[in-house]
Amino acid sequence: MKIFRIRHTKLSASVLPSTHHALVRSFLHLGCEDMFMEMIDDPINYGLFPDAFSANIAMNYFIIQDKFSFAAKIACHMMKQEEFRLSTCWLSVYSCLKWLLCGDQSWITIPCTFRNMDNEEGEDLIFKVPFLKNPVFDDHFDLEEPRQLVGKTIFWMSEHLPDSPAIHSCRALGLKLWNKPDRLVQLLKQYCETSDLQLHVDALDFIFDDQSNEKNDQTEKSVVDQELSKLVSKIKDSAHFTNNSLEASFFDQMNKELPELEKTDIVEQINLISSWNQRRIQLLENKVRQIYLKKRLTEIAELRKKLTEEREVVFFYENKATWEQNVHPDYKDADTSVSAGKLPSDEEYVVPELEKRTVDDRWKRF
C-alpha cells in the first residue's frame, strides 16, 4: 500500500491535514471498512490521524450500521488524540455506551494484510528500530484493555459535556471501567453531598455488580467494594437516582444539543476546506515555480558553457601559451615570451653575432 510506503519515507513530513480527512471519507464511501480500521489501529506504520469532522462522520457511519465496536474504537482514538470538540464528545460517549450496553462487547482486531513494501523506486525507507523501553505505564497510549480504553474515553469526553444526570452517570461509569476505584469513591461522595443531583439506577447497578479484572490485593479490593456498596446504597436511599434508561436519556440530551453544534461544525468545516484548497493551490504554485527555476538554471548553465567555448575560440591566440601549457604540462618552465607574443625592449635586445662560415661549414649543415 502506498500509504504504508509514504509513512516510512521522508515524504511523511509533507502529508497535508486534508489527506487524513480525504482518506477517511474515501474508505467509508468505498466500503473499505477493514482497511480503514487496520490503518487507524496502527498509527505508527500508517500515520492516519482523523480530524474531528472525519471522526464524527465515521462514528455516525458505524453506529447506523450497528458496528458499535468500530465506532467505539474511533472514539478511543479521539480520546488519545485529546480531541474534545463538543460534537465529537457527544458521539464518542454515545458510541462507547452502545458498545458497552449492546450485549456483544467483542473488540474487533483487524489482521495486517494490506501492507506492500515493494520498493520499486529505490526510496530510502525509514523504520522504527526496536529498543528496550523503560518500565513505565503512562495510562494513556499504553492502554490496551478494551474496557479500560472505553472507560477512560467515557470519563474524559463526558467531562466536557454539560452537567445532567446522564452525564454524571457516565462519569462514574467511566471511572469504574477505567479501574480507578479511589477516584470513583471521591466522585460518588461528591455526588452524595449535592442535594439536587441524580444518577441513573442502571449505571449504579453496573458500578456495583461489575468486577474488575485487575490483579489487585484481595483485602484492598474488598475494602473498596464495601465502600462503593455503601455509597451506592446511600445514593439509592436518599432518592439521588432515576429509573430512566441511561442510554435513552443520553440519546435524548444529545439530540437536543447536536443541531446547534452541527451548524457550527458545518460553517467551520466549509472554512477549513476552503483553507485546504488555498493551501494546495499555493503548494502547487510553489512547485511549478521550483520546476521553472530548475529549468532556467539548466538553461543558464548551458548558455554559460556555450559562451565559454566561443570565448576560447575568439581569444585563442592570446591564450596560446596557456593552451600549450595545458596540452604539454612538462614544458611549463620553458620560455614562452615569443609564443605569447611578447617582444623584448630596445635595452633588452641583443644583436646576434654573425659567424663567418666557410664552404665546408655550409656543406656540413647539409
UniProtKB/TrEMBL annotation:
Highest taxon above the source species: Eukaryota
An example Gene Ontology CC term for this record: ribosome
Matching InterPro entries: mS27/PTCD2, Ribosomal_mS27
Ribonucleoprotein in keyword set: yes
Alphabetical UniProt keywords: Ribonucleoprotein, Ribosomal protein
Subcellular localization: Mitochondrion
Stretches that traverse the bilayer: none
PANTHER family: MITOCHONDRIAL 28S RIBOSOMAL PROTEIN S27 (PTHR21393), SMALL RIBOSOMAL SUBUNIT PROTEIN MS27 (PTHR21393:SF0)
Name used for this protein in its record: 28S ribosomal protein S27, mitochondrial
Origin species: Trichinella pseudospiralis
